[in-house]
# Entry
Amino acid sequence: MESHQLLAVIWEKSKLNLKSEAAINYLSYCWWIIEPVIHMLCYYLVFELLLKSGGPDFVYFLLTGLVPWLWFAKVVNQGSMSLVGGQHLMGQLFIPKLFFPLVFVTQCSIKQLMVFSLLLVFLLLSGFGISAHWLGSLAVMAVQLLFMIPLVCLLAVLVAFVRDLNYVIPTLLQFAFFCSGIFFSIETVAPEYQELFFINPMAGLIHQYRETLLHNHWPDWLYLGKILLGSALLWLITLSLYRRHEYTITRLVQE
Amino acid sequence: MSSDIIISVKNVGLSYRKKKSFFRHQYFPALKDISFDVRRGETVGIIGRNGVGKSTLLKLLSGIYMPDTGSITNHARKTSLLTLQAGFDLNLCGRDNAIISGMLLGYEKTRIYAELDNIERYSELGEFFYQPLKTYSTGMRARLGFATATHLSPEVLLVDEVLGVGDEKFKKKATATMEDMIKSDRTVILVSHAAAVMAKLCNRIIWIEDGLVQDQGDPTTVLAAYQQS
# Structure
């Protein structure tokens, strides 16, 4: 299969998966919005009302962290099981194995565009003036996507090799959630540990989202460049794994 | 029929692996040393007892698996298993399923769109073509699967026991379509237990036993030897 054909089938399958998902619920496509809103309400209730941990602008701080995080968590959670989940189809026809994780990334990202637009509308209504710096957040989003693609493709193939990892990933995600500064500012962390925090790309990216959306700053291009470089390296490793194991994967997931 | 070789299988072997204990696996050879050629336009039948590796061989020929040993040279532009209902999603309508199934099989969207009317007509689903698959009966799903698979068929078609789907009327139509496809210039490799069908449709039979080619050649001779064994 040619790469343009692979991209076309990934796009089509992602669209149809979303259609299929919407078809089984009464509220259909509304869930794209309702689900993240419910999620955010829970965090808001816990951190703002119960723990009283937030400051005056806590709700905006929380939202700009949660919206990118939920995208990341969903892609990683679902995408890492995608090769194992695709075993039936793999046994029926030949399809490049990257298809499976990339469909999840695409379908979650289509939803994310919607949720992110809503976040912008919410910020506008809350009195945050629209600024050119918001364009910077789109760059941050693009970098997040380019970081997630190799990560989730790599995780999917690792899970295909060692199924046990499937139990570890949710725990690691939980750990990453606490280390990404979603409900606390990394500036409150002791200075000697701050750099350590930013080794976690999600912590850095969330910080960049806030800089662009809440503080009218341009993103730290150098930091974004470093993440892109790291992602490119990760992509090379991932791609070589898929090339080498294109056929092994089919038999592995069927064992 | 031209006599040029389209697929060449040389000393192919494949073993399945089963987990035995921590980090230890047990290997089961499905195919040990298989060699044969398929000429363009030929219909080749593969026979052998259950579990002898016939379906594994088709998976190797379609590129789903790679052999552990030996090699397969395939000159066809497209070779695929006649897979009914590949990638079907119960929540989507017949039309959407036909499109995605065709795309997964590697066809361009424009080619699939050009066939959609024919698929709709052939499957005899009427208005159901636009309804979700979960409202279909088993027979209706099979009809859609068969219509999609046969209207988008490759240069080399691999068939694994799919003759006869749906109700009696559709079964006749499906069998006739299969027979037409097999009799045409298309190269077909057919796996079936139905000796009469194999004798009628195939130019040559390959008999596989214990992971090796036991015999191959003229259908009547090979089938007779197989049935006596």
Notes: Residues 208 and 219 of chain A are 5 Å apart (CA to CA). Residues 134-161 of chain A form the longest helix (28 residues). Residues 3-254 of chain A form one domain.
